[in-house]
TrEMBL record, chain A:
It comes from Cladocopium goreaui. It comes from the Eukaryota. This is Proteasome subunit beta. Pfam families: Proteasome. It is found in: Cytoplasm; Nucleus. The keyword Nucleus applies.
From TrEMBL, chain B:
GO terms for molecular function: threonine-type endopeptidase activity. GO terms for biological process: proteolysis involved in protein catabolic process. Its EC number is 3.4.25.1. It is found in: Nucleus. GO terms for cellular component: cytoplasm; nucleus; proteasome core complex. The active site is at residue 48. It catalyses: Cleavage of peptide bonds with very broad specificity. It is an enzyme of class 3 (hydrolase). This is proteasome endopeptidase complex.
Automatic annotation (TrEMBL), chain C:
Its EC number is 3.4.25.1. It is an enzyme of class 3 (hydrolase). This is proteasome endopeptidase complex. It catalyses: Cleavage of peptide bonds with very broad specificity.
Length: 241, 278, 237
């Protein structure tokens, strides 16, 4: 602001012919049926056991709804499912799966195998191909041969049996650590594979680390260990910020 | 390397002396965005909790130390309290780059003013200069500030919005955690608090933001500005978020990463028998 | 002011691209921050020997109340004040420019400037930059030429002299009340009560107005400020 000021000088306003006016995209306001409630889960298969870990924060946007909400549901005595994404869809999906498994048990007089549940989950998800459940699932259990099984899904039912996997808001951070520590990718020296306690320790460490960098992961973690003895659960604290 | 353009006439010279931002690529970028779906770069915005209180003869500012980039924590222990003059500090929320440059610019302006006039800068001077600048850029410079200081006229606390509006208040909070922090301040603020009580209050307000707002986190920084001492930053005044668990990993043995090729290049060659001539 | 506007970034017209389906906060360098605006109730009325100005004290950013005890009546000169509504940044900037120019003018003049001059300065600023401003103003004050005067300067930059005026988001609720109850030639006390009552009524109906009722009585001899706290408003709810 130096020199003489004159009233009435017009500033150069954009004209209707200017390029940015032509390309002004229409603004659409609409309600979305989906929400992202954040959170991270992971599953690691061992020779005769499987470890599932997940945090318990339920959030939306910049606010925390609750600090203690489990993402993991027990489906049978040797199978659990962990779901990230939208909580209401996860609840619906888990309820639906449990109902189907009760019917299975009545019809077949035994509990469904992990492989059978895996297939059923896939069809259940694909059934809603054009209005999907907004859930990203990890299905874990011990199969009929007694081997640890981990299945990874997308939201519409594409699935794959994998040695380890992760999903949710911090999954990108988790995967790189699992690749290095479990798969030992790009490592030339053989180091002994982690044992059961080592994998549990690793899962705890990974979730603690993700809690440092992913704002949607935190509060507390839970670890499910499934082996021949059944399902056991341990809990541990994460950061609250 | 691009050639440096020589000023062609007095208009160019005038332009180069005027300073400010360069907007030369705005139209080009808009055109590119319309032709191909190019996303403009996203800035680091700190979802933040900052607050400040004014007491009898002291101003106390406080901030959290998390800096985010979308859902990721970009910096777990960043500094959001900025030095402007010995007796004026500010806490910033909004676009990280804008905050850093705006406060640095104000720091240099105030130092030049101090040297030119031989007097201590006043808080209202800083406020006026900041609001004029922010108004000029119509909200595109994303600085939301809580500015505090003590000058010859006493303690002052201001909040400044990105569009350049200002408010003078006894207590304020800004950033994504401002609602959580304001809840504490509204409940417990009182102008007769002692300095120690004041420090505790702002730290409690920031803690509310840290724990209840996902954009804020990590530690509490506090800045106390008094008439005699000026401002003192109490870095990491509280650390309520230490890591709770760390596994003991076996280190990767040397040689874990394969060496594909090894080559040693001599970057400096030493000539032994150089004869110097005149 | 004019220079400021001429230097405005061209980037303002930039089309914004937010990632599709991104659940996180749209975080874009080219996007200006949300504006702070004064969803307001302003009431001003002339009486025998001066004017009374009245405003609520709520300043909001969207849903959030950024300041619950703000001052929307700003001083322009000894006996000239302005009630501000619209964008807080725009009206504050406008007021400080007029304050500056009117101050210079008063020094050159060697006596008190007229309310007419002040209102005219506001009008020129508001009209010339109407595409960029969101400012509704009521300029009022007292001078020896015409006594108490009120000039309303709504959004486009028109200037009209009125015996009483209401502006801001809350004004719609009370215009009928004002038309029915305003009488020319009221006493100071009557006028103050009338204006405070009108503001309180608007506060009780308008969500964007609230807090306290600040009032200012400008007469030849003095300027009196008063505040009614939010829990002592002169209305039965």
């Amino acid at each position: 602001m130096n020199g003489a000021h004159r009233f009435g000088s017009k500033c150069d306003r954009p004209k209707a012919t200017d390029i940015h006016f032509k390309m002004q995209a229409p603004v659409e306001h609409r309600w979305s049926p989906y929400a992202d409630n954040g959170g991270t889960c992971l599953g690691v298969a061992g020779e005769n056991f499987v470890v599932v870990a997940a945090d318990t924060r339920l959030s939306q946007g910049y606010s925390i709804h609750t600090r203690n909400c489990s993402k993991v549901t027990r489906l049978t005595d040797k199978c659990v499912i962990a779901s990230c994404g939208m909580k209401s869809d996860a609840i619906t999906l888990h309820k639906h799966l449990k109902a189907r498994l009760v019917m299975y048990e009545h019809q077949h007089r035994r509990q469904a195998s992990v492989t059978a549940i895996a297939q059923m989950l896939s069809t259940t998800l694909y059934y809603k191909r054009f209005f999907p459940y907004y859930t990203f699932n990890v299905l874990c259990g011990v199969d009929d041969e007694g081997k640890g099984a981990v299945y990874h899904y997308d939201a519409i039912g594409s699935f794959e049996r994998v040695p380890y996997t992760t999903s949710g808001s911090g999954s990108a951070l988790v995967m790189s650590v699992l690749d290095a520590q479990i798969d030992k990718e790009n490592q030339t020296i053989d180091t002994p594979a982690l044992d059961k306690a080592g994998i549990v320790e690793l899962c705890k460490d990974v979730l603690s680390s993700v809690g440092e960098r992913d704002i949607y992961t935190g509060d507390s973690g839970e670890i499910f260990l499934i082996d021949a003895a059944g399902i056991s659960k341990t809990e541990f604290d994460l950061k609250l910020d | 390397m691009a050639a440096v353009e020589e000023p062609q006439d007095y208009l160019d010279v005038l332009q180069s002396h005027r300073g400010g931002f360069s907007f030369e690529n705005c139209k080009r970028n808009a055109y590119l965005a319309s032709q191909v779906a190019i996303k403009p770069p996203t800035a680091m915005k700190s979802g933040t909790t900052i607050c400040g209180i004014q007491l009898k003869d002291v101003v106390i500012l406080a901030a959290d130390t998390r800096s985010t980039c979308g859902p990721m924590v970009a910096d777990k222990n960043c500094e959001k309290l900025h030095f402007i003059a010995k007796n004026v500090y500010c806490a910033g929320a909004g676009t990280a780059a804008d905050l850093q440059h705006t406060t640095e610019m104000m720091e240099s302006q105030m130092e030049l003013l101090r040297m030119a006039t031989g007097t201590q800068p006043r808080v209202c001077t800083v406020v006026r200069r900041l609001s004029s600048m922010l108004f000029k850029y119509q909200g595109y410079v994303g600085c939301a500030l809580v500015l505090g200081g003590v000058d010859v006229t006493g303690p002052h606390l201001f909040q400044i919005y990105p569009h350049g509006s200002t408010d003078k208040l006894p207590f304020t909070s800004m950033g994504s955690g401002s609602l959580a922090a304001m809840a504490i301040l509204e409940a417990e603020y009182n102008e007769n608090l002692s300095v120690e009580e004041g420090k505790k209050l702002v730290a409690k307000a920031i803690r509310a933001g840290i724990f209840n707002d996902l954009g804020s986190g990590s530690n509490v920084d506090v800045c106390v500005i008094t008439k005699d001492v000026g401002g003192t930053i109490l870095r990491n005044f509280e650390k309520p978020n230490e890591r709770k668990f760390r596994a003991k990993h076996a280190a990767f043995p040397i040689g874990t990463t394969p060496i594909m090729k090894q080559e040693i290049t001599k970057l400096v060659s030493v000539e032994e028998d150089v004869v110097m001539r005149d | 002011m004019m220079d400021f506007m001429a230097q405005r970034p061209v980037g303002q017209e930039f089309v914004r691209h937010v990632e599709d389906g991104c659940p996180y906060r749209a975080d874009d360098v080219m996007k200006p921050e949300q504006a702070v605006s004064t969803g307001t109730t302003l009431v001003v009325a002339e009486f025998d020997g001066g004017v009374v100005m009245c405003a609520d004290t709520r300043t909001s950013t969207g849903q959030y109340c950024a300041n619950r005890a703000s001052r929307k009546i700003s001083k322009v000169h000894d006996r000239i004040f302005v009630c501000r509504s619209g964008s807080a940044a725009d009206t504050q900037a406008l007021t400080s420019f007029v304050l500056h120019y009117l101050g210079q003018h008063a020094v050159e003049l060697g006596k008190q400037p007229t309310v007419n001059t002040a209102a005219n300065l506001f009008k020129i600023m508001a009209y010339n930059n109407k595409d960029h401003l969101l400012a509704g103003l009521i300029v009022a004050g007292y001078d020896d030429k015409k006594g108490g005067q009120i000039y309303s300067i709504p959004l486009g930059g028109t200037r009209v002299r009125v015996p009483y005026a209401a502006d801001g988001s809350g004004s719609g609720y009370i215009k009928g009340f004002m038309d029915a109850n305003y009488r020319p030639g009221m006493s100071k006390a009557e006028c103050l009560e009338f204006v405070q009552k009108a503001t309180a009524l608007a506060i009780s109906r308008d969500g964007s107005s609230g807090g306290m009722v600040r009032s200012l009585v400008i007469t030849k001899d003095k300027v009196e400020e008063a505040v009614i706290e939010g829990n002592k408003l002169p209305v039965d709810l």
